[in-house]
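In response to reviewer comment 3 from the previous cycle, which asked for concrete evidence that the modeling workflow produces usable outputs, we include below a single protein chain processed end to end. The sequence was submitted unchanged, and the resulting structure tokens are shown without manual editing.
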Amino acid sequence: MKPMSVHHLAILRRHMVEVIAIHADLMSDEIGKESLDERVLAAMQHVPRHQFVPAQLAALAYHDTPLPIGFDKTISQPFIVALMLDLLAPEADETVLEIGTGLGYQAALLAELAAKVRSVEIVEEFASEAKVRLHELGYANVEVRVGDGSKGWAEHAPFDKILVTAAAQRVPKALIEQLKPGGRLVMPIGPAEAQELTVVEKHASGEIEMRGVIPVRFTQLEIA
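The workflow returned the following structure tokens.
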């Protein structure tokens, strides 16, 4: 059988977005809305997910499922990626901090939605790969560094929004401090067996408000 063409992959990507929309509708009671932000869905339609998975898994890139990317890590299920972006609600003029770059897929999506993305990855091999993939696709508004994500990226703080793609028992203090008043953070909170995707709002007064959305399962945030 001949390999898939760019045309085939574009069709599969469109189908992936349609499945995400169906999934959102079916979970409308849990997520509090019947559809996700059209900007998020447009970004999912545009960014080639097959470029951010190991080459041998490219044909599976548009299934609504997580896929292994090495080092016992995965690229998240597309619906969960879309939901996290919808909950984060990055605006076109904002700067976003991402914790957990992986191979760069969610950073690319954020780059479509925000003015500037800074992403911290603890696995050096992932960070190097992500830089290459993002550069090849022309995402000049993303900067990736190797580091302990729980410490954020202090020299570029504060951030309008923060997205964390790994779970912890509580939000790291450094990330709360680096979030602008009026800003929002989205991450999975809780132990391995009882994580909940959580929206954290930092009010202008500095008060923190947290809202759980749905149960999820992510790898734990690694601390150097």
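The chain has one domain: 6-216. We consider this sufficient to address the reviewer's concern, and the full set will be provided in the supplementary archive.
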